[in-house]
Predict the 3D structure of the following.
Amino acid sequence: MLRKVQNKEQQIIELFRRGDASAMDELYACYADYLTAVCYRYIPDDDKLKDVLQESFIKIFTKVSSFEYRGAGSLKAWLTRIVVNEALNALRREGAAHEQKLATNLPDLPDEEPDVGELNEETLLGMIGRLPQGCRTVFNLFVMEDKSHKEIAACLGIKPDTSASQLHKAKALLARMINEYRRKNGQT
């Protein structure tokens, strides 16, 4: 149905504008796996992840008429923003993103950050998923969403210094997990 990969976003939007019944299926087929991976970075629990994705797709399908195409990648960016915002809303509802719930008493960052080049994506995402929620949320917003500590602080209702501290702790925990993984698998 979608002939040109470079124009798939425009074609999907056009299907929605025409009221074509296949629009939702096309959007879901193109982006469900990617959006699931985005959501998993914040919500590693399968049941909660499914709930957040469901809420995200409801919001996407009800708001797509207000989406304004701005060039290649703009639809994907818009979809990603919705999923990230829904994941953060879910974390807020749980109270996990509040400053008092953030990780404390964690190890310092090793002098040298471990090389993640040999780790497969699934293993690395699994490690990120095991981070405490506060660390994981800040790590994802900083590393994956390219947010500043000031932006993260505003988003989560914390101080920028707390965001920086949580990132430091997240990196330290990931370094420890990577080093343990390498020792167990004879990669040291």
About this structure: The chain has two domains: 8-97, 121-186. Confidence is low (pLDDT under 50) at residues 1-5, 96-102. The helical segments are 8-18, 23-42, 46-63, 74-94, 121-129, 133-144, 149-156, 160-184.
